[in-house]
Design goal:
The complex is a heterodimer of chains A (598) and B (219). With 598 residues, chain A is of the alpha+beta class. Chain A has 19 helices and 17 strands. Chain A has helices at residues 6-10, 20-28, 44-55, 92-95, 100-113, 166-180, 189-194, 200-234, 253-259, 263-267, 271-274, 280-291, 339-373, 375-401, 407-435, 447-457, 459-464, 484-503, 558-568, and strands spanning 60-64, 69-72, 117-121, 137-145, 153-162, 238-243, 248-251, 297-305, 311-323, 326-337, 443-445, 468-473, 478-482, 511-519, 523-529, 573-577, 583-596. By secondary structure, chain B is α/β, with parallel strands linked by helices. The chains are: A alpha+beta (598), B alpha/beta (219). The structure holds adenosine-5'-triphosphate and magnesium ion.
Chain lengths: 598, 219
């Protein structure tokens, strides 16, 4: 059908320059024998279109004039198979006769009404057996405007867009590139196309191999897709895919169930919409780290607001979906419902709080009990200074009522009265603070002073039991970090135990030694040593258990409460039998930030 | 009001109470010496000065009651006023039986304390005078010869000269002579006076605390 003429070649116009194999073919065709006539008579639009087509690397095809005379470029060649080279310059109806019912209408439509359309079909497969059914193409049909044409439409241009999975496209590109560069030594595409493949056997083998590898990769793809689907659909974890603004694109059943929304409802929401109000800020900042690539992924524990208004706790793992070199456009979030765990945690926290409250309550009650037992001693401690005040008052009056009042003596008496009244009120203050039920206040404390204060409250029992008291308090004792009332309670317990233990011994000296020391880098230790009945080695731990007592009027709570107080202060309380008579109790406390008493 | 050469001793472990008591007692003109403990007090020379002791029952170390007992044992007849923080009846009975002048409860009323001090000092004066009298009587008694003492005993027993002469196997004239010597040496104006002196010499003294001293005087 194609005839070569000297004239055609001689007058070969610029629009047919280059264009690789198809360019060469076009230049060899006697276009005057075709429906669109000699090249010289082609309209400017047609010339432009043809040179554009030949210069293009994407598959392009042009049907020109009412007979749809067919022109195409090198890139389109693979789709034609055996139709080529006859198909060049051939009317479309002839070339695609077997499929014309399918291809014809969109071409006709574009040509007559000027409407651009596209079809997704597989008509190309007929001639390209190695792509089998897998190939899916979108063919765009666009009318080409031409002023010189009767209805101002010169023809229809077709482009082929591949819509098969990307991997197939990649395989195809590899294959085509391979085909294109069949001849070695070709340094440019142009050269390569000028030296077409000649060894057909080799080509066939290559094509067959290419097809097999494609099938294999498709198989793998199907498998991995199937796996992903299975995970996505059947996972107990909620999985959601969002775009980079956080808008939901796809969610699995578990995710829908967690939130009580359908997939459709979720598509109109972003993850912010379903995040519990208080948890949003943290979540947003983590996301922006992800988008700015500061982090590869992040994991948060947060609450989702359900459609029904309730909330659930989730642990969410979020990462971008990376697609090779390209910029990610999607993110995936995998959410695990941890509501049960959180509730359990909350219950545990509440239980702990209740326990702490109960302990504080108990400590308070036992403090009151102890204070009750000490009431005689306390009364004396208050009565003593008050007695001095009264006596000084009388003395003062007498100094003043003298015929010659002695003002110096009167003044001295008043000064003492003030001092003693202050002292009395301090004692009362100390007792009141022990009796008060106040939340613990951790402050730096001078434990030496605390020891002295507690011992003044115990003067009476010490005296009554004829106990000789010795204090060995180091002057540069570090300040302890603690609650004064609670630590005073511990000391009252230890001192009373020591006194009670010594009272049980009929003979031997009764000696109570209270010592303070710095310990290690940041601790202090208080020692309470008595010469009482002592402890069996086997009993040194047992006595710290609640309700363990050897006293008829004892509750057995003193040491148990004391230990819980010391441990809450980050210290330790323990007992050791003495080498001689009696026992020694020691407790440690954390020092306050490197500050010393005085 | 000022008493010469009397000292009120105050023993209390609480310095404020000590100072207040001292001030009150000084305000009425007494001289005061204060001590923080019984042991401190025992180290001073309190025997030769007239006075009294204001003592806190509750003291560290030797308690007030211990001190009272110790003084008794030492034969020191110093009147004691006890002060206690709380009214403790068995304790009050015990110290009063042991001869305390008074037991006052804190806070002490000034008049109660000052009255008690006056009373104690009065008692001290009396007992000191009695002690002196007895010492003098003893000296007079010691100046009698053996025979004169025998005569004095018999006179005080109410015997007549004749009976005494018969008992001692001497003449009635000699008895009369001895009798005149006894009356002179003992500075007795009458037989009744002599009998009184003899009773005093044999007495155990006004307070239990004088036993030790009396024993040493009779030896
Ligand atoms: N210093 C000590 N020497 C010997 N045994 C001691 C000493 N301190 C405690 N114990 C023993 O440990 C037991 C428990 O002491 P804890 O203070 O817990 O209770 P308690 O003193 O018996 O009663 P309370 O609740 O009134 O304090 C005592 O009964 C006693 O047997
Ligand atoms: Mg106890």
């Amino acid at each position: 059908m194609t005839t070569q003429t000297a004239a055609g070649r001689a007058t070969s116009p610029d629009c047919l320059a280059g264009g690789g194999e198809m360019g060469a073919l076009m230049r060899s065709i006697a276009w005057s024998q075709t429906p669109i006539g000699a090249v010289e008579w082609w309209s400017p639009t047609l010339r432009t279109m043809v040179s554009y087509l030949l210069a293009n690397r994407v598959p392009m095809l042009l049907w020109w004039g009412p007979s749809f005379c067919q022109l195409y470029n090198d890139a389109f060649l693979p789709y034609l198979g055996a139709k080529h080279p006859k198909s060049m310059g051939q009317p479309a109806g002839e070339c695609w006769a077997e499929n014309w019912h399918f291809i014809g209408p969109p071409i006709e439509n574009a040509f007559r009404s000027g409407a651009a359309t596209w079809t997704e079909d597989m008509f190309l497969e007929v001639q390209r057996p190695w792509f089998a059914e897998e190939a899916r193409w979108r063919i765009g049909y666009r009318p080409v405007m031409d002023e010189t044409a009767p209805n101002r439409i010169g023809g229809v241009a077709a482009t082929v867009d591949e819509i098969t999975e990307k991997i197939i496209s990649e395989r195809r590109i590899v294959l085509l590139r391979d085909l294109g560069s069949r001849s070695t030594g070709a340094t440019t595409a142009e050269q390569a196309f000028h030296r077409p493949v000649t060894n057909l056997t080799e080509l066939t083998e290559q094509l067959a191999a290419g097809r097999q590898s494609l099938e294999r990769s498709l198989e793998a793809l199907r498998e991995s897709e199937a796996r992903w689907r299975a995970v996505f659909e059947n996972s107990a974890a909620g999985i959601a895919v969002t775009d980079l603004r956080g808008q939901f694109q796809a969610v699995n059943a578990a995710f829908q169930q967690m939130l009580g929304y359908t997939e459709d409802e979720l598509r109109s929401l972003s993850f912010i919409d379903i995040t519990y109000e208080e948890d949003r800020d943290e979540n947003v900042s983590a996301c922006s780290d992800l988008l700015s690539r500061k982090r590869q992924y992040f994991q948060v524990e947060k609450r989702y607001r359900r459609k029904d208004g309730g909330f659930i706790w989730v642990s969410v793992y979020v990462s971008l979906i990376s697609t090779g070199a390209g910029t990610p456009r999607l993110a995936v979030a995998v959410a695990q419902d941890i509501t049960e765990r959180k509730r359990a945690e909350e219950r545990r926290r509440q239980a702990e709080e209740a326990l702490q409250n109960a302990q504080a309550e108990l400590a308070h009650v036992t403090r009151l009990t102890t204070l009750g037992e000490l009431s005689a001693s306390i009364a004396h401690e208050v009565n003593q200074p008050l007695g001095a005040v009264v006596t000084d008052g009388h003395a003062c009056l007498r100094w003043l009522y003298k015929a010659k009042p002695n003002l110096d003596e009167a003044r001295a008496a008043v000064k003492r009265m003030i001092q003693e009244a202050t002292h009395a009120s301090e004692v009362i203050g100390r007792i009141r603070s022990l009796a008060r039920k106040s939340p613990p206040r951790m402050i730096p404390l001078d434990m030496n002073q605390a020891i002295v204060d507690v011992l003044t409250l115990l003067r009476h029992p010490l005296f009554q039991n004829k106990v000789v008291l010795k204090t060995e308090l180091v002057a540069d004792l570090r300040q302890a970090q603690g609650d004064l009332v609670q630590l005073q309670q511990v000391m009252v317990n230890l001192f009373m135990n020591a006194i009670e233990s010594m009272a049980m011994r009929i003979d031997g000296p009764r000696e109570l030694i209270v010592a303070s020391q710095n310990h290690g880098k940041d601790q202090i230790v208080i020692q309470v040593r008595d010469s009482g009945v002592g402890l069996d080695h086997g009993r040194t731990e047992q006595i710290f258990k609640p309700f363990v007592t050897s006293k008829s009027n004892g509750l057995g709570m003193g040491l148990s409460i004391s230990r819980s107080i010391i441990e809450a202060h980050g210290g330790r309380l323990s007992a050791v039998p003495n080498d001689g008579p009696g026992a020694t109790f020691l407790f440690s406390l954390r020092a306050a930030e490197d500050r010393r008493v005085k | 009001m000022t008493e010469e050469r009397t000292i009120v001793y105050v023993v209390d472990d609480d310095p404020a109470t000590r100072d207040a008591l001292s001030s009150l007692i000084r305000s009425v003109g007494f001289q005061v010496a204060t001590f923080g403990s019984a042991d401190e007090f025992l180290e001073t020379d309190f025997r030769d000065t007239p006075g009294c002791l204001v003592l806190d029952i509750r003291l560290p170390g030797l308690s007030g009651i211990d001190l009272q007992r110790r003084l008794t044992e030492m034969g020191v007849d110093l009147p004691i006023i006890f002060i206690t923080g709380h009214g403790d009846i068995p304790l009050a009975v015990q110290v009063m039986k042991a001869g305390a002048v008074e037991l006052l409860t804190k806070p002490v009323r000034d008049e109660d304390l000052l009255d008690a001090i006056h009373q104690a000092l009065g008692r001290d004066r009396v007992s000191r005078r009695e002690r002196l009298e007895k010492i003098e009587l003893r000296q007079r008694f010691d100046s009698l010869t053996r025979r004169e003492r025998q005569v004095m005993h018999l006179i005080c027993d109410g015997r007549l000269n004749k009976q005494i002469a018969a008992e001692l196997g001497i003449s009635e004239v000699t008895v009369k002579l001895h009798r005149a010597n006894v009356m002179r040496k003992m500075k007795a104006g009458s037989v009744a006076g002599l009998v009184g002196m003899a009773t005093k010499l044999a007495s155990k003294g006004s307070q239990g605390g004088t036993r030790a001293r009396r024993r040493s005087a009779i030896r």
